[in-house]
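Dear Dr. K.,

Following up on our conversation at the group meeting, I've run the structure prediction for Acetyltransferase (GNAT) domain-containing protein from Methanoculleus thermophilus. I'm pasting the input sequence below exactly as I used it, so you can double-check it against your construct before we proceed with anything downstream. Let me know if the numbering doesn't match what you have in your notebook.
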Amino acid sequence: MGYSIQELSEETAEAWDEFNNQCPEGTFFHSIKWKKILENVLHIDPKYWIISSGQKIVGIVPSKKCTLTYLKGLDTLPHSEFNSILLDNNFDPRDLHEVLTQFASKYSFFFLNTNRQEFLDYIGYDHYPYEIVGNMVLNLQQKPPETIWENFSAKKGQRKFIRRFDEKGFKIHETHEPEDMKIFHRYYAENLIRINADVLPLTFFQKLPEVFSSDEMRVTLLSKGDTYAGGLLTFMHPASKTAYFQYLSLNRNLPNTYHPTYYLFWEGLNWAWDNGYEKISFGRQKLDPKNPRFQIKADFGAEYKPIYSQIVLFTKTTSLLYRIRKLRVRRNSMPLDTGTPVRQLEASVLDKRCIEHPRHIGRRPGP
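The predicted C-alpha cells came back this morning:
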C-alpha cells in the first residue's frame, strides 16, 4: 500500500495530537504534553514516530532509543501506563509487516505493544512475548456507580470501608497547592517504598500542575484536621472520555480499620461519572486474581484488558542470539562468559531481564 515513517517534529506535533484525540485507542499518555514531561522533568530522550500512507497519518509510535552494545532498537515508553502503537481504526492488520519494514531499515529490534491481538499474526519477523501484563479498566456505561455499589458484598465490607470515613468526619478536597503536593508525595513515596516499587521525584509532581490544566489532571486529598488518610492523582483525557487513577498516596500508619483506597476510588469514579467520563483506568496489573491490588480494582468493576507485548527481531544476528540465550536459560546453564565482544553482546542484548522482562525505572503496576 505504501507506508512511510517520519520522526515527530515541531511542525507535526499538532497533527500528532489530532490523530491521538481522534483515534479510538488514543490516550492521555500519547499526548505531546506528556512527552514534554518525560523530556523536561524525567530527562527521557523519547523517539516519536508518525506512520503515513501517502499524505494521511495512519499511526503513531511513542518510544525511546535502546542501544545495547552495537545494536540499536526502539523500546516502549517508560513511566507510561499506555504506550502501545496506535493505528487508524481502518488499518488493515495484514499491512503491519510493511510498516515494521520501515523500522527494520533503521533498527535491529523493536519492542511492540498493541491492544489488538490480531496484529500478532502479521508481524512477519521473528518475535517473542516479553511481558505478560494488562490494564484494569472500568466501563462506566456498563457499570455505573449505582451498580458497583449494589455489587459490593457484605462479606468483603467495601461499603463499610467507604462509610467509615464519612462517619468519622474525614473530608475530601481537590488541590493543586505546592504544600499539598509535598504531603501527597510524602505518603505516595512511603507507600511505594513499602511495596518495594520505584518512586518518582517530588519535582515531577510539582511540575504537573504547571503543564496540565484542571481539565487534564485532578488531585484529591482525604483528611480530617491534621490527620492525612490518603490522596489520588487522576489524569483525564476528555477526547476519549477516560480518567486514569494514576498515583495513589496512602498513610499506612492509620488504624487497620481504615482503608482509604476504597474511599478514594469511590469518590473518584463518582466524580468521573458526574463529569461525563465513560471509562476509568486503574493502571497496569498482572493477571493475578489473588493479588490484593487486582482484587480491589475488580471490586470496583474493572476488567483486565491484556496488552500484547512482543520483542520483534529485525536482523538474523539478533534473532540467532536470542534463540541461543533462550536455550541457555532453558538448560539452566552457568552464567554467560562475558569476556569476548560476542559474549558481551549476548549477555547484554539478550539478557533475560532485558528481553523477557524489561524493567524500566518507574514501571510498576497501577495504584
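Two things stood out to me. The longest strand covers residues 126-139. Confidence is low (pLDDT under 50) at residues 333-365.

Best regards,
J.T.
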